[in-house]
Write a structure and sequence with these properties.
This protein is an alpha/beta fold and about 260 residues long. The chain contains seven helices and ten strands.
Length: about 260
Amino acid sequence: MIRIVIVGAGGRLGRELVRAVARDARFRLCGATVRADSPLLGRDATELLGLAPCGVALSADLHAFRDAADVLIDFTTPEATFQHASWAAEAGVPLVVGTTGLSGDITAHLRTCAARIAIVYSPNFSVGVNLLWHLASAAGAAWGASPAIEIEETHHIHKKDAPSGTAKRLHEVVSLATGRPREAISVVSHRNGEVVGDHCIRFDTAGETLTLTHHAKSRAVFADGAVGAAAWAVGRPAGWYGMDHVLGLTSVRHPEREDA
């Protein structure tokens, strides 16, 4: 059984991660953290979700789980992820990162840590979104510079970054596939209600239009993908991986691996 620690377990996606681990017999939740000022401190991680208690209290002390974890999952903030990556590298624990909005310096730090541990990073762990990137990359490579390309994304009003990390990745992979500068590809962002996440890319020529769309119905798809990536990461050699590796879609080019 794979022992998982989830950092940021009190957030929207953190709770979905706890739920995903609780319902999968491959895993045991052995630790869950929240901020030191969180009112959830001390609460049972699964009882908080209306499930049977699992005996894991929400804690602010990640160091308490150093010898208990087989893998760490992090969907927090860029600054927190920087610290968590250092902890994971020092502890020798594989790391799954879904935090978006990472700066170049933080990404570089994660890549340095990936020389010591397996790190699976993706701005979106949905299987469908990763297939969207794969199909868009293939379409871009086939069409090259001929079509006009527009990316459109919609998320809930609470989302802080725009464009979304998913849209940025779509922008990057299509730019690489077409050989076209990123400024030549339009990206439009909307923030509306409680939309979980919608992404669309259109390839438009004089004679035809190809539209690829992904609609997330629930945050559970992100959590399920992340725990699947966690299972894949355990026992892997140190390195910088993506969901394309997990799913066997490694033909997709990604800018952060262009120098790898």
